[in-house]
Design brief:
Elements (H helix, E strand, L loop, with lengths): L1 E5 L5 H6 L2 E5 L2 H7 L7 H14 L5 E5 L4 E8 L2 E7 L8 H14 L4 E6 L4 E5 L2 E7 L6
Parallel strand pairs: 5-6, 6-8
Antiparallel strand pairs: 1-2, 3-4, 4-5, 7-8
Length: about 140
């Protein structure tokens, strides 16, 4: 029913002691348990992406360097992948989403990352990193 995603650390102890992000198996449970007046589409969208990744691998974390955060780091076929989730990229969150992803790409020495949105597409080049902005229906592991 729940998936607890730890903050990435090279040490198992570091992962065990880190704060966890909680994802529920069904967004309907979020609706029932929520006391929020908003629809919280961003959180539900991130929850959906989490379970999509979880169906392919159990090796899943979030990344935080204290200044920025990347929603998902996961290992698939011995390769690390970095994914940021953003319901809709706009002027309010554009820089934050890119900075979080670039921070993870730099840490894992990756050249490419993905930002998953509800329906936007783009290709962003920043500091030598390539970021694909894709709609969720194109996200295929």
């Amino acid at each position: 029913m729940l998936n607890l995603v730890p903050r990435f650390s090279w040490s198992v102890k570091g992962q065990m002691l880190s704060e966890k992000k909680v994802y529920v198996v069904d967004n309907g449970l979020v609706n029932v348990a929520s006391v929020s007046a908003s629809k919280d589409l961003g959180r539900k969208f991130e929850n959906t992406v989490c379970w999509s990744i979880r169906r392919k691998t159990k090796n899943i974390w979030y990344f935080s360097d204290g200044n920025s955060e990347c929603d998902f780091i996961f290992k698939l076929n011995e390769e690390y992948l970095a994914v940021q989730v953003c319901y809709e990229m706009n002027g309010d969150n554009h820089e934050r989403e890119i900075n979080g992803l670039v921070s993870a790409l730099r840490f894992f020495n990756l050249r490419e990352g993905v930002i998953i949105t509800i329906n936007q597409t783009d290709k962003i080049l920043v500091d030598g990193y390539s970021i694909q902005v894709i709609p969720i229906y194109e996200f295929d592991l």
